[in-house]
Amino acid sequence: MADHLYVIKRDGARVPVSFDQILGRIREQSAGLQHVNPDLVAQKVCNQLQDGMETRKLDEFAAETCAMMQSRYHPNYGLLGARILIDNHQKNTPASMLQCVETLYHEQSIISDELHDLVCADPAGYELMIDYSRDFMFDYFGFKTLERAYLLKKDGVPIERPQHMWMRVAIQLHGKNMERVKETYDALSQGYFIHATPTLFNSGTAHPQLSSCFLLTMKDDSIKGIYETLGDCAQISKWAGGIGLSIHNIRARGSKINGTNGESTGIVPMLKVFNDTAKYVNQGGKRNGSFAIYLEPWHADIEDFLRLKLNQGAEEDRARDLFYGLWIPDLFMKRVEADAEWTLMCPHECPGLADVHSEKFEELYVKYENAGKGRHTIAAKKLWQMILDAQIQTGTPYLCYKDAANSKSNQQNLGTIKSSNLCTEIMEFTAPDETAVCNLGSLALPKFIEDGKFNFEKLRQYTSILTRNLDIVIDKNFYPTPECRKSNMHHRPIGIGIQGLADVFAILRMPWTSAEAAKLNREIFENIYYAAALESMMGASDGVWRNVAIDTYPSFHGSPMSKGKMQYDLWNEVPVTTYLPWENLRKLCSQGIRNSLLVAPMPTASTSQILGNNECFEPFTSNLYTRRVLAGDFVVVNKYLVEDLVKLNLWTSETRTAIIANNGSIQGMLELPAELRELYKTAWEIPQKTLIDMARSRAPFICQSQSLNLFLSEPSYAKMSSMHFYAWKAGLKTGCYYLRTRAVSSAQKFTVEPCLTCSA
């Protein structure tokens, strides 16, 4: 083979292929990796070599070969593939931060003047902080995710190394403060937490739009108000923001329009315009815009609204590129439960319903009913079945509970909260002149396991750093509209989430249904909330303790926290972490705090893939799944399960085949130990009551909300009603983000594109 095939080196030289050189390189990269056979990899690579292949392409092919082998042999082949890929990447990219910045600044005009000038002023100072060996901490799919979407490019080719990206984010936030730059760089590069996708995309660029979530309400029920709102949505989407929009105040179909003496065509034609705008204004060329539309179920167009995403039906009645959520008052759930009638109303004819909640809403709604102002009545259960039908077909609408969201909000002094965001974890006040904004980041929970125990002190330490960083984002951010800036400066909300809870349970041998898992889930969130509130209250800025009177967010007075009420007080709960001085924290926070909202566990689809963790607080959806990259589809097996099977000498081709045949489940594999079958139950096999109970247990320490997906293999009205009513009665603000279902025959869940915008 070496006598007949040639490769092209990076310098353009054409040299004969050497099996020994290929083997030597693979052996070098596999150092310290158990369960990896470099000879086998080299043999597979050489058997498929093509004459004239560039050495950089040879590395990429070798890495792909390793990625293909990890499901058949061992996950460590994926780590070997990553090492080969990253070593190749380092050979093809600038060796220093200064060189990288100069290339992106002068040749691409991507980097901001500020970042360029900072790095040029002290290149050695920043470079000394960088540890390029940390590039090799990524697995194959984590690095491919960075390469595809996150690392800045020149002519479509990545120029950054991962360490340059982390440093770019750290400098964006902390500038000349080298101590803080190093602190953030180390935390990011070692994988303790990660900032949200827009922060990774846009830090250090000419327009550093670092925020993930934007919430709007319609400016006015008029042509001018609708199109001004549409323009704001387009401007926000241009800069990679995900949108949540409430449309409760838009008059229903058939409503009189006084100015023209005509009749309104309702929300459907309007939403088709929003749908087309979401498709047209892509997010920096990376993906289509994403809009979630929220409506309360008393609106007279609710039935049309529920059909907008359905697969069947006339195209003029559909707007399938939008996402849909219901903002549900308790009264509707009570009427469904009582099998009572539900009156649909037009907000133009029955004004004010969107502006009140809880008892005041019920009083106003019943007043309109008694006065005969409703459009028509429908059996509440019939409308509920329409909601469930839509969920079975599309996974949506999201179910968010208006009264819980408002009565348990630290922003309740501002007015009625009217919607959530694209991923149902952000719940903030909006007004015609205020677009709510939230900046996100997530803590990587597996990093806090040390010697078989969870290190809560370290969790609090890194929560404090992340809290401080997210607060700084508010000040360093580029705002797409004046309404965004006004809201964020007045209320200063942030959103801290997590990733890798399933990894933690697997590492610590805690089945999801165990009392130990339930206790740890709650304790983690108590510690996060405590540390975030303490840092927001008393964190040092540039080494100087804050002046609370000056640095308290402007709309603080009148909030529950200003009255000494923490989030858990609004749930009538008491923390179980008695080792934390909660009463002292309460007193401090009642004097003033930097941020109105702190904790918001979001989906982490892409950022958890970067760090190699399972998404947010979800169970593994399968023990075998497909990762899709440009090179193709790769089958991946749960790495923790494989490690356990290897230890038991049970990782065989027969076992692998059986897992594939069972669609990633091991519950029917009775030859495996019962302990493993219990530990590796998937989201489809864990009772949904367990997931809802966990959500309820951590909720008193989540001051925004949480992106709670629910999973039903075989959905039915009875199962879904039972599940949703259980979540509502538990007092959750978000009852259901996506309902994941799968057909029995194909075992395929909904193909729902992950929210890249909110991923943190």
UniProtKB/TrEMBL annotation:
Q: What class of enzyme is it?
A: oxidoreductase
Gene Ontology BP, a term: deoxyribonucleotide biosynthetic process
Keywords linked to the UniProt accession: Allosteric enzyme, ATP-binding, Deoxyribonucleotide synthesis, Nucleotide-binding, Oxidoreductase
GO terms for molecular function, please?
ATP binding; ribonucleoside-diphosphate reductase activity, thioredoxin disulfide as acceptor
E.C. number? 1.17.4.1
Which Gene3D superfamilies does the entry link to? 3.20.70.20
Residues covered by the ATP-cone domain = 5-95
Q: Does the keyword Transferase apply?
A: no
Q: Cellular component per GO?
A: ribonucleoside-diphosphate reductase complex
- PROSITE patterns, A to Z: ATP_CONE, RIBORED_LARGE
Family according to the record? Belongs to the ribonucleoside diphosphate reductase large chain family.
Query: Which PANTHER family does this entry report, sorted A to Z?
Result: RIBONUCLEOSIDE-DIPHOSPHATE REDUCTASE LARGE CHAIN, RIBONUCLEOSIDE-DIPHOSPHATE REDUCTASE LARGE SUBUNIT
Protein's name in the database = ribonucleoside-diphosphate reductase
Q: Which organism is it from?
A: viral metagenome
